[in-house]
Amino acid sequence: MNSLEFLHNYCDFSNPNWVWIMTGIARNKDNDAGEKFLRRYVIAKPDDIELCWYEIHALARDPKTLYRIYISLNARDAVKAAFMFQKKMADVTFGLAKGQDDALHLSKKLGSLWKTELAQMHNRGTKRFLLDLDNTNQDKANNIHAYLRDITTVHFVRETVNGYHIVFDACDTRGLMEYCKQISAPVDLQKDSMVFVEQFLGE
Question: What CA–CA distance (Å, rounded) separates 203 from 158?
């Protein structure tokens, strides 16, 4: 499944409050001499997916840099985040009234502050978990997938650079983690992070 098809299948807009965050990044540990790169986009409707994906590719132009694209594991509840954001804005405006340099700096990057607030765990719209399997073969990933299907809804098994991401609805994971130990599959359970979409070199 290509990246755009995956994104369209993954991002659920059934709740009008929900948005998703697409992130394009060049990680330091992947690049010794490449450019610094970080772009975050709020995906509010299906049409935004391709626009933001293409924009990341248009900006990621350094042929010496390895880029990655991720999508937020969970939808973000924009209404919940808006109420939380009011406190941040009150702090900024109070600081501006007092002439604080930090507040002035923050007032010039409100878009970034909004995306940071959306990304906070308390603003999740869905409750999906991510099992990150590094250096794990496909057979073990398939076995874990089969185990999960018996206890919850599995949304995707996505191959990554080093293994697999398995995304599933929140559930009691104690038995799962014990099963992973039994089959010697090193895993990292994440409750609100990012799902791997793709990796590419700049052009």
Answer: 25
